[in-house]
Write a structure and sequence with these properties.
Blueprint (H helix, E strand, L loop, with lengths): L5 H6 L2 H9 L5 H8 L7 H16 L16 H7 L8 H23 L5 H7 L7 H7 L14 H30 L3 E9 L2 E7 L8 E6 L5 E6 H33 L2 H26 L6 E2 L5 E6 L2 H10 L6 E5 L5 E5 L6 H15 L12 E2 L4 E5 L12 H15 L4 E5 L8 H17 L3 E5 L3 H9 L3 E8 L6 E7 L7 H7 L4 H10 L2 H82 L2 H18 L5 H38 L13 E4 L6 E7 L2 E5 L4 E5 L3 E5 L3
Helix pairs in contact: 2-3, 3-11, 4-11, 6-7, 6-8, 6-11, 9-10, 19-20, 19-21
């Protein structure tokens, strides 16, 4: 039996997570159900709920997307169906048809993709599939929300008569309009509409000459609106028929309501099922937004959170485009209680809340933002004491409230409990409060409870170091910059860096020194030793990271070189095979050429045939007998080798072409203007001489021992004349 106190949910801000989940619901019923989410009491129900969400989130990444589950609430319709002699309106029937159709679509989908979504199919199988509701509604109401003419024979007959009367009314009115207009009894506007009825716009002076009913007049009284007598008679008939039509429609709706009334329990089941799907959909979407997964669930008491994020902090930082630091923590039978220490604002409370909130989320059927190698278990009870908790209503101080909480902890703590306590022992005299906190912690330890506490008390750090199943942990802090690193390190206590932080915040060194003298020297030395150890740990971690990066680089380079070597070796083998094959063919060609030349000289056919036969026999003796299939394989291999060689040659050609293009595209350096006295050399030479004479693009170059006459274009400048 799982039981998590509402105070724990409040401390861990679980309601904020539910608000985020609620935003993804597409129905009001779904939102209301999300608001009421609490951790599951049954382990079986919890595992089932987790599988449902895990299967739904997988649909976001495959081709078999789950169909839309949106629906309009039918709670009011269901209430009416429970009351005898009531009937539903057309809008109610349309909602019922829509909810039935949506449910049927989902039921068929999960049946089709049972292998992909086994748990969702398992739930869908419990819901009855039927087309009777949709068919009965569609037989009466069309897609525009109107009662069909053929819903009953009487309705069909009445509407036919009504349609005929409308034609007669229009015809009689048009006849009267033309007749009285010809007599000049009508005003210029001729006609108007009053109470949805067409009337003649008669001049006031001729009103007695027009037979019919007066329905009104203009503001000035110059026009009287009269409905012609013939039209009036038809309207009376129309009113009677419309009344009968309304009565028939009501009868049809009552009949349809009575038919649907038998399906009321099923419709209620449909609404509950779609609401459940909406909640699963919202949980899956929220899980996706925080990169949530379903970690491995262990039967024993073991909790290993790797790269765990606080979901609320993660989403807030994501919105601000700021980094969120993940935490890795392990709680097992060998380290049941973790005592986290370190400076304020270093992330102790966030780490505590991260573990608690993720555990509550998991036990409420939600995915959690952790690494896929993480492992989690289930606790029967999670209790917490986080925050100030000063109770104004009950006139309780922080410490009094905390003592009350500790009393509750002492009653409830056992080997299936996870307890979370922030700033354990604070609120009273440090010496006395620390001693009492130590005693409480020893009781929790003896009862084999699992827990995390944050503290600054040295005696609690020492206790964690002495007891075998309790561990110290600290939030790392940069000793030089005095900035938090937001990284949890298991195995050693953390310094509070009290004096260092005070110095950084501008407190005079003389006052800090005075404060140091007021406290016991042993405590200062203990805190100083812890601080020094943390600094050393930080340096070692940086060195370790650097070495790991270098090792990974070297391994990657070695793998790369090995791959290149293997490819080169393969190509060399291919080239060798091709070379051997070509050499053999060249040798055979030379032999045949020698025989042809000998035959050309002596014309001895028999000798030629004998020599050719010998050559063929020698070559065949080298060949192995192979099947047709093996021949085909060999041909394919040879073809493949030739293709690979061709590709390599093509690549080399392409590279050469690209190199030439690049060379051509490079901006050419402007050629220097040569002058007499410049030291130069030929473009393809090494000897250096000086220019004696330049005439008509020709230069006389003096090399000392001799002179030569060359074109200026063939020379390059080595050193300009001074």
């Amino acid at each position: 039996m799982i039981n998590i106190h509402h105070k724990t949910l409040q401390d861990l801000e679980f309601h904020t997570v539910l608000q985020h989940v609620e935003e993804y619901c597409i129905t009001d019923l779904g939102k209301n159900q999300v608001k009421a989410i609490i951790p599951f009491f049954s382990k079986t129900e919890l595992l089932h709920a987790l599988n449902l969400v895990n299967e739904y989130i997988s649909s976001f990444e495959n081709d078999n997307r789950i169909p839309n589950h949106g629906f309009d609430e039918i709670s009011e319709s269901l209430k009416l169906l429970a009351i005898e002699n009531t009937f539903l309106e057309v809008s109610d029937f349309r909602k019922i048809a829509a909810i039935s159709d949506t449910t049927n679509t989902l039921l068929l989908f999960f049946k089709k993709f049972e292998e992909y979504y086994p748990t969702l199919y398992q739930d869908a199988e419990k819901v009855t599939y039927t087309k009777a509701i949709i068919e009965s509604i569609h037989s009466v109401i069309d897609r525009f929300g109107e009662i069909k003419n053929d819903a009953s024979e009487l309705l069909f007959s009445l509407r036919k008569s009504i349609s005929g009367l409308h034609s007669k009314i229009n015809s009689s009115f048009t006849s009267a309009l033309n007749s009285y207009n010809g007599l000049d009894y009508l005003d210029d506007i001729r006609e108007s509409v009053i109470e949805n009825r067409r009337v003649l716009a008669v001049k006031a002076m001729h009103r007695r000459k027009v037979k019919g009913a007066i329905l009104g007049s203009s503001k000035t009284g110059s026009i009287v609106y009269i409905e012609p007598e013939a039209t009036l008679q038809y309207h009376r008939e129309l009113n009677n028929l419309e009344y009968e039509e309304k009565e028939e429609v009501t009868r049809i709706l009552k009949e349809l309501t009575n038919f649907i009334r038998d399906f009321a329990p099923l419709l209620e089941q449909y609404q509950e099922y779609l609401t459940q799907i909406d909640v699963i959909y919202a949980k899956a979407n929220y899980g996706k937004s925080i990169n949530g997964i379903l970690p491995k669930l262990t039967n024993g008491r073991y909790l290993f959170l790797k790269d765990a994020y606080h979901p609320i902090l993660y989403l807030n930082n994501k919105e601000k485009e700021e980094k969120t630091f993940p935490q890795t923590i392990e709680i097992s039978k060998e380290s049941r209680i973790i005592v986290i220490s370190g400076p304020n604002a270093g992330g102790k409370s966030i780490t505590l809340k991260t573990v608690g909130l993720l555990q509550v989320m998991l036990q409420s059927g939600m995915l959690v933002p952790v690494h896929e190698r993480s492992e989690m278990c289930l606790f029967n009870r999670i209790i917490s004491d986080i925050g100030d908790n000063q109770s104004i209503e009950n006139h309780l101080s922080t410490y009094s409230y905390r003592l009350k909480q500790m009393n509750y902890f002492l009653k409830k703590c056992n080997d299936k409990t996870l307890f979370l306590i922030d700033e354990f022992g604070t609120g009273s005299d440090p010496e006395l409060g620390g001693a009492l906190a130590e005693t409480f912690l020893e009781v929790f330890y003896e009862r084999e409870a699992f827990g995390l506490i944050t503290t600054h008390y040295s005696n609690l750090k020492l206790l964690a170091n002495e007891l075998p199943y309790m561990k110290n942990a600290n939030m790392m802090f940069d000793g030089k910059s005095l900035e938090p690193l937001y990284k949890l390190v298991l195995g050693e206590a953390g310094s509070s860096f009290t004096f260092e932080v005070a110095q950084k915040n501008g407190i005079p060194y003389s006052l800090i020194n005075k404060a140091k003298k007021k406290i016991e020297r042993g405590k200062v030395r203990f805190d100083k030793t812890i601080a020094r150890l943390q600094k050393e740990r930080s340096k070692l971690e940086k060195t370790e990271r650097s070495l790991k990066i270098n090792e990974q680089k070297k391994l990657a380079e070695a793998d790369k070189l090995e791959g290149i070597n293997a490819r080169v070796q393969k190509k060399l083998e291919s080239y060798q095979e091709l070379f051997d094959s070509n050499q053999r063919l060249i040798y055979l060609g030379q032999k045949v050429n020698d025989l042809a030349e000998r035959y050309f000289n002596n014309k001895q056919k028999r000798e030629l045939m004998s020599e050719l036969f010998k050559l063929v026999q020698i070559e065949n003796s080298k060949r192995k007998k192979i099947t047709k299939k093996e021949k085909q394989v060999k041909k394919q291999q040879e073809k493949k080798i030739i293709q690979e060689v061709s590709k390599e040659i093509q690549k080399i050609r392409v590279k050469k072409k690209e190199a030439k293009k690049k060379e051509a595209l490079k901006p050419k350096k402007p050629k220097p203007v040569l002058k007499i006295g410049d030291r130069v050399r030929l473009l393809d030479g090494k000897a250096i001489g000086s220019i004696d004479i330049i005439e008509k693009n020709k230069a006389v170059v003096n090399y000392g021992m001799f002179t030569t006459n060359v074109s200026v274009d063939q020379l390059e400048l080595v050193e300009a004349a001074k």
